[in-house]
Recover the amino acids of this structure.
């Protein structure tokens, strides 16, 4: 799948989804269940993610979506998303986990954009949405299989597009580099620019994955519609972010990767925990050879 810098493109896997849907029962004449019917199917309170819900069709089972999102989407929209999940899980089985459903919903354009954005943005501002955001930040800090890490990062990027931060319009990083800003956010020090930081980190990770010349083609295709955004102009220190993500997808945790990047001729890159954050003052070295396979952790 081609990643475009500007303009709209068709939703991921449209042909695959259409083919799959043509083999399944039609729901075009089926009415959307009322809130009362939906509530009788839920096994949790409204603000609790659903572990099992069954639509009247009897086919869309095993959902783990926030009930506010679940009720806001039609059967047809959920059905289309279900087909997308089936296809994605066949390609990347490591991501076939119920808790990933909401992450995929955040990162894909398989649902009518206007309706999806309204439903998701309303939910993202809720306590449940903020809780997921905090969980994603915690997960980004930890060692994860590269597919899961990529999904989490891109989902966080998409979430922050739904809930803009107060300084997202500011065109310069707060600490001197966007990687330094990410470090602050993961360290529990919000800087007010999480939207632009998420965007910068998402595109940096995409650059690194693309540098392996097809090694992560399936992963990029699955997450590609999240990048249906204008590519931000490169910042002076974006090379730091690329260095960081090249280490993360090879299995290093956040702290270890940050420590290594901070030694690339830039002793002041990371702040002393007792001092204010300082910007880097030297040019980062090139990325490691892209021919090297990232095989230090399990994952396809």
């Amino acid at each position: 799948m081609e990643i475009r810098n500007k303009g709209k493109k068709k939703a991921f896997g449209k042909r695959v989804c259409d083919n799959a849907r043509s083999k399944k029962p039609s729901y075009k004449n089926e009415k959307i269940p009322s809130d009362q019917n939906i509530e009788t199917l839920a096994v949790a309170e409204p603000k609790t993610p659903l572990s099992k819900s069954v639509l009247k069709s009897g086919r869309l089972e095993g959902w783990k979506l926030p009930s506010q999102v679940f009720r806001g989407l039609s059967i047809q929209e959920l059905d289309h998303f279900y087909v997308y999940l089936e296809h994605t899980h066949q390609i990347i089985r490591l991501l076939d986990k119920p808790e990933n459903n909401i992450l995929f919903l955040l990162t894909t354009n398989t649902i009518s954009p206007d309706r999806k954005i309204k439903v998701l943005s309303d939910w993202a501002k809720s306590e449940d949405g903020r809780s997921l955001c905090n969980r994603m930040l915690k997960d980004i800090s930890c060692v994860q299989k590269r597919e899961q890490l990529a999904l989490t990062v891109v989902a966080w990027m998409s979430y922050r597009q739904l809930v803009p931060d107060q300084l997202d319009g500011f065109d310069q990083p707060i600490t001197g580099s966007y990687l330094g800003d990410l470090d602050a956010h993961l360290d529990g020090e919000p800087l007010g620019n999480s939207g632009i930081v998420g965007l910068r980190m998402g595109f940096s990770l995409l650059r690194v994955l693309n540098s392996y010349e097809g090694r992560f083609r399936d992963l990029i295709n699955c997450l590609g519609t999240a990048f249906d955004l204008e590519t931000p102009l490169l910042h002076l220190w974006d090379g730091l972010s690329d260095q960081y993500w090249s280490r993360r997808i090879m299995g290093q945790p956040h702290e270890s990767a940050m420590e290594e990047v901070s030694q690339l001729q830039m002793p002041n890159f990371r702040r002393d925990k007792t001092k204010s954050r300082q910007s880097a003052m030297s040019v980062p070295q090139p990325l490691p050879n892209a021919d090297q396979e990232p095989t230090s952790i399990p994952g396809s």
About this structure: The first helix runs from residue 14 to 22.
